Amino acid sequence: MEGKTPILQLLTPLVKDGIIYTVDSRNNLIVIDAKTAETIYTKKLKNKYNSSPVYAGGKVYLSSIKGETLVLKAGRKLEILAENKLPGDLFATPAIASNSILIRNEFSLYRIGNKP
User: Fold this and answer.
1) Structural domain boundaries in the chain
2) What are the phi and psi torsion angles at 5 (to 5°)?
3) β-pair partners for 33
4) Where are the beta strands (DSSP E) in the chain?
5) Upper half-sphere CA count for residue 84 (Cβ side, 13 Å)
6) Residues 5-53: pLDDT tens digits?
7) Residue 116 has pLDDT above 70, yes or no
8) Which terminus of the chain has fewer CB atoms gathered within 10 Å of its CB, N or C?
9) At 99, phi and psi to the nearest 5?
10) What percent of the chain is modeled with pLDDT above 90?
11) Does the domain spanning 14-113 belong to CATH 3.40.50.2300?
12) Burial category of 15 from C-beta neighbours within 10 Å (exposed 0-12, middle 13-18, buried 19 and up)
C-alpha cells in the first residue's frame, strides 16, 4: 500500500448541545463546534475506541476495546470525571436505560447505575 494515504476511520459521533464528540482511528478524542466546525479541544487517548460515545445526565461515556470507560463532563472544557475498567474486550456501544449504563464485553452484560 505504498504511496496511499491511510483512511482515518471515525466512530459514529455524538452530537449534544451543538458540540460533536468523536474518537479517530489514531485514538484522538476530538471535540468540535457543530456550527463553526472549529476544534474545541483534542486529547490523545491511550487505547483504541470502536464503540460510539453516548450521553446521559450531563456526561459523555467513551468505552475502549480494552474494557475502559472514560467519563467526561459534557461541554467546551475537557473535564475527566472518571475512568473505569471492566474485564475483557469491549466492541459494542454502551446503552443508557433506566438510570443505568449497559455495557457488553466478550463474556458478560453489565448494568451499572441506580435502580429506577
Assistant:
1) 14-113
2) -85, 130
3) 19
4) 14-16, 19-23, 28-33, 39-44, 54-56, 59-63, 68-73, 80-85, 95-97, 100-104, 109-113
5) 14
6) 555 556 799 999 999 999 998 899 999 999 999 999 999 999 999 889 9
7) no
8) N
9) 60, 25
10) 65
11) no
12) middle
